[in-house]
Amino acid sequence: MKNNEKKGLLILVGVAILIVLVIWLFTRPKNNDNKGTTQNPASSESSASQGEFTKVEEDGTIVNTSEKLNEDRTEDIGFSVTNISFEESNGRTVLKARVTNATEKAQDSFFGNIVLFDKAGNEIGRIPVSIPKTQQGETIEVKASITESYANAYDFKLEK
To answer: What is the mean pLDDT of the chain?
Structure first.
């Protein structure tokens, strides 16, 4: 190889490494942990449990205790929602429920939102949800999750 070819190859390798480094820096997961400091797990659980509508289980799962959020309901879009479970674990907030088509006909599948509210009725977040095609009176299990912390919500509604 000639010197010019070696220089060109080194420049090409250097640029490739730089591109990979830039891509890695922009796509790596953000870690908000304070490096170099230790935190007592009990203190993190107690800070997580300070929400008015939450409690922390032994495994660290944050469970929503709001009676309003957990009560059965029939939404304006014609679906009844029962057996509601709303909790946060491993950085994911998850709502699970049984949804029944309470309309007078089959409903096509749709993407909707679980709209979350605080006690004052202000919207605090949305969780996207997919509702599959349902027949009249059919009940399905629905699970919607997001990587945001909304476990302390007071109420929610399902909307198309």
So the answer is: 82
Residue whose entry in the numeric block shows the structure tokens 């909304």: 150
Looking at the structure, do residues 24 and 58 belong to the same domain, yes or no? no
Cβ atoms of 107 and 78 closer than 8 Å: yes
Does residue 53 sit in helix, strand or coil? coil
Contact between 142 and 129 (Cβ < 8 Å)? yes
For the stretch 135-146, pLDDT in tens is 999 999 999 998
Give the full edge-to-edge strand order of the sheet including 123-131.
123-131, 110-117, 155-159
Residue at 11: amino acid letter: I
Structural domain total, the chain: 2
Residues 102 and 109 sit within 8 Å (Cβ to Cβ): no
Do 22 and 78 lie in one domain? The reply is no
> What are 44-98's pLDDT values in tens digits?
333 444 588 899 988 889 998 999 988 999 898 899 999 999 999 888 999 999 9
CA angle 52, 54, 58 (to 5 degrees): 140
Residue 13 phi/psi, 5° resolution? Answer: -65, -45
